[in-house]
């Protein structure tokens, strides 16, 4: 049977674009279908006057982001385009900011932890480093703590370790409820990303990688896919009144969306899709007339606001500290991240109500905020990041061992790594699996290429 395409990719987020990039390099006819008017998925940026507003929050590490640096190098991005952030993370406690969260300085200072909790932080770090070979960020189901939640892990130590480290990091970076999400995934991430003092960002916005990838691909934006059906040796997509056929289809969308689109998934796929729940994300961008800084804390670019201290916010990102190019000279830019517990009530609220609720909480941390705040934008992500529950971790083994069929998947949820690196790795994996089915002779060359950790940027670190 003749097909319209070799591969149809549903979703122009970083996972779908990575997969399409690899498959096109292998000589296949690939088209990407994206429902939104722009590429990037959860890694989009909005330009307003001279502000660059990230709708999410992204930073990349020199360690633990092997596949991302592969793409950065291949696409020709320079070191100046992926600069070091150079500002610390801080946590709020007892009326002030304490710098050093996720950094080597925190090992010395405790980063807001009490003396007893500081000792337990050292115990935890020693244990994690000693057992790092038992944590696999590509196969979390094989890791230690796979059946435990982050809160379970916290209960082994002084309560402050949970309240002023594990919960603020999990709640702000992933939107997690620590009673639900897997400790194995979080510990793997903490081990892989290294010290926050080494983290980097994209100078021109978090959509940089997506825009670079899409520039050489056949991408159709504003095109909603309604259904995908495995059909013999291929699959078909329903897009509006049209039907597109392909030898393979890759669903590169959040797991709940993939479950809705795929009409006839095998059992081992359906059960994992059902287990891959997502946490929603809600953020407000604030354009400022001046670049405010949090008093104390060595001018952090992220201020974590623990749930035991703050109910409305999980963090404040000072984007102009993250990179000065995010705002015009002499101006500022903030991202207010909603506390996971408040998001369900606010997801369907008006923009005015969301802005009012989150901005009212800022004065405690930035006393001059009202004077400087000039405009606000609300960003809603119904499917923010994979929740990575122990149930999902348990079911992933059978999913990972599935046979390659005409419909496959990519996304950070495939490896249960809630970060862009997880999406890039999943995209590369999906491309390799697809090629093994369509062109088995190509697979060894691609697999070898995906194992390379090249990079002129890496050598400069």
TrEMBL record:
InterPro entries: Amino_oxidase (IPR002937), FAD/NAD-bd_sf (IPR036188), Zeta_carotene_desat/Oxidored (IPR050464)
All copies of domain Amine oxidase, residue ranges: 14-433
SUPFAM superfamilies membership: FAD-linked reductases, C-terminal domain, FAD/NAD(P)-binding domain
Signal peptide stretch: none
PANTHER family: PROTOPORPHYRINOGEN OXIDASE
Record protein name field: NAD(P)/FAD-dependent oxidoreductase
